[in-house]
From TrEMBL:
Pfam family, one: Zn_ribbon_9
C4-type zinc ribbon domain: residues covered: 198-230
InterPro entries: Oxidative_Scav/Glycosyltrans, Zf-RING_7
Source domain of life: Bacteria
Protein name as it appears in the record: C4-type zinc ribbon domain-containing protein
Record's keyword annotation contains Coiled coil: yes
Regions annotated as coiled coil: 25-145
C-alpha cells in the first residue's frame, strides 16, 4: 500500500477516536444541565412561595392596622353617644358602629384565612427546602464524578493529540491539507473503505477503473462521486 495512504488511514483513525469523546462529553454536560434545571425549578418555586407568604404577611399587617383604627373609631362612637340628644343622631351613630364592627370582623376573618394559608405554605416550603437540599447534594456528587470523567477523557484526548502531532510532523504537507479539506465537509468519513465496489462514504458504486486503482493502492484514490479518500480494507485493519 502507498505509504501516504497508509498514514492517512491511521491519521483518520486517530481523528475519529478524538471526536468519539465529544458525545460522551456532551452527555455529561447534558446530565449536569438537567439536574441544574431541576434545582433552578425548585428554587424558583421556593422563591414564589416565599414572596406570596410575604404578600400575605403584608396584607395581615394592613388588616391589623385597620382593626386598630376601627377600634379607635368605636371608642369615639361610645364617647359621642353619651352626648347625643336626638334620635336621628343616635341612629347615625349606631349605623357607624355597625359598619365599624362589620369591618373589624371581616378584617379578623381575613387575618385568620391568610394566616392558615401561610401555615400551609410554610409546611410546603419545608418540604421543598428538603427536596432542594437533596437535589443540591446529588448535583454536587454529579459535578464531582463529572470532573473525574472529564479529566479521564481529557487525558485520553491529549494522548491522542500527541499521537496526532507526531504523525502529522512526518506528513507530506500537501497530502495533509488535501485530507483536511475533505475533512472540513466529510468530517470523520474523509477516509472510507470500499466494500463490494462501493464507496462507504456515499454508498455509490465506483467504476471498474477506480476499483482497480483502489485495489492496487499505489496512489491515493478518491471516490469519483463524493471525493472522499477511498481504500481497500486489508484483513489486518479490519480486525
Ligand atoms: Zn463516495
Amino acid at each position: 500500500m502507498n505509504k501516504n495512504l497508509k498514514e492517512l488511514i491511521e491519521l483518520s483513525v486517530i481523528d475519529k477516536e478524538i471526536d468519539s469523546f465529544n458525545p460522551q462529553l456532551e452527555a455529561i454536560e447534558k446530565k449536569l444541565k438537567k439536574s441544574q434545571d431541576k434545582i433552578d425549578g425548585a428554587q424558583s418555586e421556593i422563591d414564589s412561595i416565599k414572596s406570596s407568604i410575604d404578600e400575605n404577611v403584608a396584607k395581615i399587617k394592613i388588616y391589623e392596622e385597620q382593626i386598630v383604627t376601627l377600634s379607635e373609631q368605636l371608642k369615639n362612637i361610645t364617647k359621642k353617644s353619651k352626648d347625643v340628644s336626638t334620635e336621628k343622631e343616635m341612629k347615625a351613630l349606631s349605623l357607624e358602629e355597625d359598619i365599624a364592627k362589620e369591618k373589624i370582623s371581616f378584617a379578623n376573618e381575613e387575618i385568620e384565612r391568610l394566616g392558615s394559608i401561610n401555615e400551609k405554605k410554610v409546611l410546603s416550603l419545608d418540604d421543598l427546602n428538603k427536596d432542594l437540599e437533596e437535589l443540591e447534594e446529588s448535583q454536587k456528587d454529579s459535578v464531582d464524578s463529572s470532573k473525574v470523567l472529564k479529566s479521564e477523557i481529557e487525558e485520553k484526548k491529549s494522548g491522542l493529540f500527541a499521537a496526532r502531532e507526531a504523525k502529522i510532523n512526518t506528513f507530506d504537507q500537501k497530502i495533509l491539507s488535501f485530507y483536511e479539506k475533505i475533512r472540513n465537509w466529510a468530517g470523520n468519513s474523509a477516509v472510507v473503505p470500499v466494500q463490494k465496489q462501493a464507496c462507504y462514504g456515499c454508498y455509490m458504486k465506483i467504476s471498474d477503473k477506480s476499483y482497480s486503482d483502489v485495489i492496487k493502492s499505489e496512489e491515493i484514490v478518491t471516490c469519483p462521486h463524493c471525493g472522499r479518500i477511498i481504500y481497500i480494507e486489508s484483513k489486518s485493519s479490519e480486525s
